[in-house]
Design brief:
2 domains; 11 helices; 2 strands; 67% helix
Length: 345
Amino acid sequence: MRFFNAAENRKPGFYLALIATLLAVIVVGLGAFTRLKHAGLGCPDWPGCYGHVWAPQAEHEIANANAAHPDMPVQLDKTWPEMVHRYFAGSLVILTLALLVLAVKNRNKPNQPIKLPVFIFAFIILQALFGMWTVTLKLWPQVVTTHLLGGFTMLSTLWLLTLRLDNQRWRFGDRELGRVVALRSWALLGLFIVIAQIALGGWTTSNYAALACPDFPTCRMQWLPEMDFAQGFNIFQHIGPNYLGGTMDNFARVAIHFSHRIGAMVTALYIGFLAWKLIAQVALTETKRIAVVLVALLLTQLCLGVSNIVFNFPLSVAVAHNLTGALLLLALVTLNHRVFTAQPR
């Protein structure tokens, strides 16, 4: 499957959308780094940081900030990840606005996407609001998880726009096309399963449940530990307390972590099955290539997930786990785009 086809086949805005997608990957990675470094409240206000464009640096500035926020004193090792994330996210807003302007300018050209750029720009404004609420509501897990899912949605839609602007399609003879079209429901289900697993991962980190099961493959030295699913998946937690570090008891966190592990097994089995269908049943060069990508990303993701537990959740591995999940999602977006836009030769 060749992604970079002749430049004349691409619609206006292709390279801008590609740059925005790459920037979105960085923003997702920075968001994961900020969250996993427990720097989500590194700046207790928004959009500034203790009333500064960057962060207080001088001693008198830090003293004034500490006096204004005695419950959240300045920690410079946590202010910079938060502000770097904010500025990169702000740059992405500018790029999505440029994509919207370009789409409107070229709206009369054949097959020029217009609804998707409008949705992307509107969605990133909503995502910025969730970024603000993440801070002002003091890491309320519902908002943190929604903000994480919003970042993955932003990345996926930008990649989808890039694919549409590239204007590449799979083209087959009638027999091969029939086999590809038959994949549509399977590919779509795979996309939904990965999204559900990402949501479970987000709920795990936002409730600080990543280390609730410190051993592998058992959990707390048991195959079926004691768990509190009612509390672990209670989405009606009150707004108000500072959720930094989490507030759930250990049995609730075990339920969340254990569910994420079960989700990982379901995801692995289904993606493996989908890859088998792509290689053995459809058996076309294009489907075999994307199957190899899916399997490679899946195995990498599983290794990173196990490494998080075995090595006590190292920051670099945890961030890589988030980014690999994002790449697996993009691979499934690509597969769905290809099978739903496949055309006769």
